[in-house]
Amino acid sequence: MTTSLLLHPVLPFVIAAAIAPWSGVAVRRIVSLAAPLAALALLLGLPMEATGGFTALGHDFVLLHLDGLARVYALAFIIYALFAGIYAWTDEGAGPKIASLGLSGAGVGVVLSGDLISLFFFWEWLTVCSLFLIWFGNTPGSWAAGFRYLIFHLAGAVVMLMGILLQMADGITMFGPMDPARAASWMILAGMVTNAAVPPLHAWLSDAYPRSSIFGTVFLAAFTTKSAVYALTRGFAGLEVLIYAGTIMSLFAVTYAIMENNIRRLLSYHIISQVGFMVTGVGLGTALSLNGASAHAFSHIFYKGLLMMSAGAVIWATGRERLSDLGQLARPMRWTLVLMMIGAFAISGVPLLNGFVSKSMTISAATYEGRGPIEFALFVVSMGTFLSVALKLPWFTFFGPDNGARATRPVPTSMYIGMGLCALLCFITGVAPGVTLYAILPFDATYQPFTAHHFVEMLQLTTGTALGFWLLRVKLGVTQPTVTLDTDSLYRRPLAAAVNGAGAGAIGFGTRVRGFNTALIGGGWGGLMEYRARFTSTPVALQSLVIVGVVALVGYLVILFAG
Amino acid sequence: MKDRVAVSLAVLLVLLVAVEAVFAPREHASFAWHVPGFAALIGLFASIIVVQLSKTVGKKLLQRPERDDD
Fold first, then answer.
1. What residues of chain A lie within 8 A of the CB of B62, using their CB?
2. Do the bridges between strand A482-484 and strand B63-65 make them parallel or antiparallel, or are there none, so unpaired?
3. How much is the average pLDDT of A434-461?
4. ipTM of the complex
5. What is the mean pLDDT of residues A407-435?
6. pLDDT digits 0-9 by tens, A402-420
7. What are the Cα distances from residue A95, in Å, to A128, A506, B43, B62?
8. A462 CA to chain B: closest CA distance, Å?
């Protein structure tokens, strides 16, 4: 059914992002909530199979195609954008508001794209907005982490774009199931698994997300990896290699999380781990496992958002985010503790919360397919998740040794409301999945999570893990600040040396040849450094957004002509 | 008994295994480990193994003190 693009749910986000730079704080706050509300109204008003687009330069741009798979992700993205917007009410900067609105809109755009070029456009829009949210963090290392993020995602995008152009050269322009016999499909897959953070292409996530502001991280946690899971579901359902990739990434990340000291990095590793469940579900390729991947993505967006929000509340109140610097905050931050525990129990699959009704779908699908080792591994991951998120994280934040952390700044009501709404949704989905989550799942499969055995099994898993934690809690403690080396340590220093060396070489060369070259090369590098020094000011940041937008538009037109 | 928390958790775990065996057995045992108490064993022993493994590997290979450029 052809639909006007004026009814596209991305449009409110674009309008709000366009209004934000020219308005005051109050208007920015209002549009940041009005945009997701309007987008939700538009999405709910669209009929299934609604299609909208235009033809230009010989290409059919299908910017809007709504089906069951797209709807479940779009709903999650829009509702979460509203909750995160409420949480970030006190974030007054124009730049972060534009970037977070843009990121939300890009996520919705990815899942509603019907053709490959539109998909790629929104895909890169995600990268640009994420990059600025990282840079707007203004935390130590956010500038460098943003550049590493950019390099990673540009590399993935180039490979993905080549794959898309090769597909288009053979007349395949719509985004649908990909043929694994074609090299172009694997190139597109490479771009998707980069965004899904499948190891060894994962380090950008745990490197960059904790460097953003507490509000920025809350937005970053939801959109990029889940839109990649959506894309994998549509393009590569049933691809065998994804079963193993997903399971390995779950095991890998859950092990790293146990070693981690920084609370937001610990949770970032758990994004990778939980996305591993979804990737495994996509690889299994049955109706139940694909529903499981979609359901778990929906659940994950809210419980992970809640965990990131509560971690942000701790950082807001104490100014600290290392477990080795926290402890004894249960009394002054009791409501944050309660909300964090709801998120922690949800991610662990505890009964009556959303993780219980979504995570087990993938595990059951592995069982039904006779994938014993996969089922076993996912059980171990469930144990590891409960161990580090529901036991280690709250214990050393709220109960462990007193390391001098004090809640010196009250957590704003808006942050509590954002967390409370996420917690409420986790609970409602957990107790009534049949009329909420399961009712919108895209594939034809039935699943009953509320069996006596499933209840007892999860209680055994959590109780056994709690006993193991209690016996080993001293070992899990971190007495001094440490970092855990990941695959990014292979390229971080060489990359920094190469960039600095290239800059020094350019200046040296410019000095030697003097004249025009001096001005061009030396001046260019000096300008970049000056730009970096001034970057934290909002006007420069806004200019940067405009510049990146123009570059993206030019690139878009180039792609059009090439295609 | 000194450690009341550990004892309480252990008793609860045994009770949960008994409840599974008597009242809530698995409908279809697909794999050899589909026996009553499997989840309890995974929870207890896998947590101990994973903690020991990650701590050992972390200390020997992967963890180092923080630097300014981290």
1. 259, 484-485
2. antiparallel
3. 95
4. 0.93
5. 97
6. 999 999 999 999 999 999 9
7. 13, 32, 45, 36
8. 6
